[in-house]
Amino acid sequence: MAAEGGRTKPVTQSRMENFRKVRTSEEESPLPFPDLPPDVVEMKVKEGSKIRNLMNFAMAQMELKGRRQIVFSGCGRAVTKTITCVEIMKRKLGGLHQVTKVRYKTLLEVWENQDPLPGSGAQNLTVHKNVPSICILLSRDPLDPNQTGYQPPEPRHGLEPQLGQAGEDTSGSSSKGLKRPLPPPCEELLTKKLQVQVPDGPRGSGSTDHQADHHH
Q: What is the pLDDT, as a whole number, of residue 40?
């Protein structure tokens, strides 16, 4: 809005093109979690934050410094990036209790007029914007499961599908490998294979064929 001649007139789009955003600030508000330790780490995620830098610092706090709890917060366009950071930490550490709170925060944007009227001082606009905000608490220690937004730790097997698959492959190959030190079953299978597939072939070629089949 701009004041001219004692009357207030709306600022049109054409006139807004003369303004440049010079500063953005968030209203300060306490974290929406009771009984947090005074030294709890809050990761304030911004739209331009790099996930790698955020996670390096957050993981160092939880693993190297032995923190029991950590909070990720973000608003506006940073909400999605905040959730991404939380999911990465849950997969890396495992066994974390989670509480999610969604609310609105007020952003204060200061816009400066790049083409002020002659003889007038600096003309700035202050815009108040209400944007969605998210705060997520991750804790190694159990949290109240009855509070709104609580999520229990994910099962360990759900966090490590690749390791589980690798374990199955390893156990499978191990069971195949156990056939060699058991002479009776091997000789019986080998004799049947020779009788069915290579009845007139030499025993050496049958043995080679059996090893190739085992290899695949």
A: 94
Other Cβ atoms within 10 Å of 43 Cβ, number: 21
Query: Which of 51, 55, 28, 27 lies closest to 41, judged by CA?
Result: 55
Write the pLDDT tens digit of every residue in 150-177. Answer: 999 987 654 444 434 434 444 344 334 4
Q: What are the start-end ranges of the H helices in 94-160?
A: 156-159
The least confident of 18-32, 106-120, 125-139 is 106-120
Q: Using alpha carbons, list the distances in angstroms from residue 80 to 72, 75, 102, 192.
A: 11, 9, 13, 62
H or E element, residue 30: none
Ramachandran bin of 95, using left for φ above 0, alpha for ψ from -120 to 50, beta for the remaining angles: left
